[in-house]
Amino acid sequence: MRSVAEQSVAELGGPASVLSRQKRDHVELDRLLNRLPELGPDAEGAVLLQIYRLVFPHAFAEEAVLWPVMRRILPDGHQLTLQVELEHQEINALVTRLESLHAGSLERQQVLDRVVALLRTDVRDEEDELLPRLQMRLTRKQLWLLGIAWEAVRRVAPTRPHPIVARRPPGNVLAALPLSILDRGRDRTDAFLQRGAGAAGPPLQALSSALRRASHAVEELPGMKRGEDPATRVGRSSRAGWGAAAILTIAVGSAAVVLARRRR
Ligand SMILES: [Fe+2]
Ligand SMILES: [Fe+2]
After folding, report:
1. Which of 5, 127, 199, 229 has the most neighbouring CB atoms within 10 Å?
2. Quick one: 194 and 148 in the same domain?
């Protein structure tokens, strides 16, 4: 069984195969992670945003499309996929924590180092173990079809960490649309802030925080944990409830208004 890392695009089933698509993202992630140590706090924020936009939709589409297929076709698929789901879960929890820690603090650096190490471990587990197993069981055409399905989900998936929602369908599929709208609104808001928003800075900062809180509230809605394996389950906060829906509506409406004004 050869690692995906050692195989050419042709051996992986062509550029549209799910294996080639996975490898391209992993190579780009490696490039971004290698840049992190040489950056100051401002530039680091911009690169972290790029990493989040690459990593979270990528992993979400793995959990929604690829791992269910592996569980169906491999006798030990449950064990193999649970291992990477645990890695994904820890990355989600650590990045959520990272957002609440002060730039420049020792604790933040330690959490960031752990995130980087886990991302590298996740790539190795997938390229050396999971994806070659998938390659042994599927035809070239099936790898191509799976690549299209994975890419379609990746393009509309949430772009931020969501440790509370299920790492498995149907909970993660149910959560995808509202979380993706909130995350992508927050990405645009944060990108404006990083370019220097001037007088619009404080309201945009408040909007970004509101979108973050709204997405965490959506995570707590009923149904978002359905399908979860007990090993990746984390506790709900005591503030769970339908009030999340109201916060969601207000936050999305505010985001649309502010971003439309900025565009004019
Ligand atoms: Fe991957
Ligand atoms: Fe992954």
Report:
1. 127
2. no
Which ligand minimizes its atom distance to the CA of 29? Answer: 1
Shared-domain flag, residues 24 and 74: yes
Distance 107 CA to ligand 2 centre (A): 25
Report the distance separating Cα 158 and Cα 180, nearest Å: 4
Cα(255) to ligand 2 centroid in Å equals 30
**pLDDT tens per residue, range 206-256:** 999 999 999 989 999 988 889 888 888 876 544 444 455 555 555 555 555
- Out of 111, 129, 156, pick the residue that ends a domain: 156
Task: Specify whether 127 is located in the same domain as 178.
Answer: no
Q: Is residue 93 part of a domain?
A: yes
Distance 67 CA to ligand 2 centre (A): 10
| Structural domain that includes position 239 | 171-263
Whether residue 165 is contained in a domain is answered as no
Nearest to 72, CA basis, from 16, 13, 146 = 146
pLDDT in tens, 86-106: 999 999 999 999 988 988 889
The answer to whether residues 212 and 98 belong to one domain is no
CA 200 – CA 190 distance, rounded (Å): 12
Secondary structure (H, E, C), 195-224:
HCCHHHHHHHHHHHHHHHHHHHHHHCCCCC
Model's pTM, two decimal places?
0.86
Report CA(59)–ligand 2 centroid distance (Å). Answer: 5
Considering the domain architecture, whether residues 52 and 129 belong to the same structural domain is answered as: yes
